[in-house]
């Protein structure tokens, strides 16, 4: 008996006492399972899981954010940065003027983006239990491609308002018709010998700033 027959046998035994007239279309299935394990501190869990995925996590207040963003860009030697159209202007206020700002415009090609050092964005939702950032191409996030091509991504998460416990909670906040990008750490893959390679199809370095009061 193979695994398929074992599984189907269990299904048949589970349905043995169900009346024939009870079809899935006629009988609603009660779905009372939990959609969250309710962590004591969702923001702390998010930070822990982001770090586990090799993202670098920072905390900042609104006053300290511009200086931190400038420091992160300088630390990567960034001479250019992509700026979404709706990014709050104050976030880059401390970045020196000689760092070239690249607007998120349709005319900018993937080759041109590949020559840009960094990108700074906000996010739509951050999921604590999985350490995942979700972008939905909102005004402070821009087109999906600007976070997939440059080698360095600085993502600002407003805490606690943008943090949810779980994926089900996150999905309720998102519009499935929008282009969603789910980010769990820097872009990475492993070969057959489990050698990890970062930066294959996205940023090699992900800095996440938890922005609180």
Written overview of the protein:
There is one protein chain. By secondary structure, the protein is an alpha/beta fold. It has a single domain (39-211), classed as NagB/RpiA/CoA transferase-like (Rossmann fold), CATH 3.40.50. It is built from five helices and twelve strands. It has helices at 3-14, 42-52, 65-75, 110-114, 167-173, and strands at 56-60, 80-83, 100-103, 118-121, 125-127, 132-135, 152-158, 163-164, 181-183, 188-190, 196-198, 205-211. A six-stranded parallel beta sheet has the order 1-12-7-4-2-3, sandwiched between helices. A hairpin with a 5-residue loop joins strand 10 and strand 11. It starts with a helix and ends with a strand.
Features of the shown structure:
single chain, 213 residues, alpha/beta, Rossmann fold, 6-stranded parallel beta sheet, 4-stranded mixed beta sheet, 12 strands, NagB/RpiA_transferase-like, Lactate utilization protein C
Helix-strand blueprint:
Layout: H1 3-14, H2 42-52, E1 56-60, H3 65-75, E2 80-83, E3 100-103, H4 110-114, E4 118-121, E5 125-127, E6 132-135, E7 152-158, E8 163-164, H5 167-173, E9 181-183, E10 188-190, E11 196-198, E12 205-211
Parallel strand pairs: 1-12, 2-3, 2-4, 4-7, 5-8, 7-12
Antiparallel strand pairs: 5-6, 6-9, 10-11
Summarize this entry quickly:
By secondary structure, the protein is an alpha/beta fold.
Question: What is the 3D shape?
Answer: elongated
Number of strands: 12
Q: Biggest sheet: strands side by side, in what order? A: 1-12-7-4-2-3
Q: Helix tally?
A: 5
Helical residue percent band: 10-25%
């Amino acid at each position: 008996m193979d695994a398929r027959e074992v599984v189907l046998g269990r299904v048949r035994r589970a349905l043995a006492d169900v009346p024939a007239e009870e079809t899935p279309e006629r009988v609603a299935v009660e779905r009372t399972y939990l959609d969250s394990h309710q962590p004591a501190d969702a923001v702390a869990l998010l930070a822990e899981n982001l770090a586990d995925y090799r993202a670098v996590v920072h905390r900042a207040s609104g006053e300290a954010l511009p200086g931190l963003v400038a420091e992160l860009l300088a630390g990567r030697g960034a001479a250019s940065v992509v700026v979404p159209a709706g990014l709050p202007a104050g976030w880059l206020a401390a970045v020196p003027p000689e760092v070239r700002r690249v607007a998120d415009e349709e005319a900018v090609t993937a080759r041109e983006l590949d020559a840009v050092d960094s990108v700074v964005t906000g996010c739509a939702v951050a999921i604590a239990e999985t350490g995942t950032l979700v972008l939905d191409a909102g005004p402070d996030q821009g087109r999906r491609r600007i976070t997939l091509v440059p080698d360095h991504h600085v993502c600002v998460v407003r805490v606690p308002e943008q943090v949810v416990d779980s994926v089900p909670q996150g999905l309720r906040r998102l519009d499935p018709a929008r282009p969603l990008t789910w980010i769990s750490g820097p872009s990475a893959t492993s070969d057959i010998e489990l050698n990890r390679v970062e930066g294959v199809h996205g940023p090699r370095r992900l800095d996440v700033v938890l922005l609180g009061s």
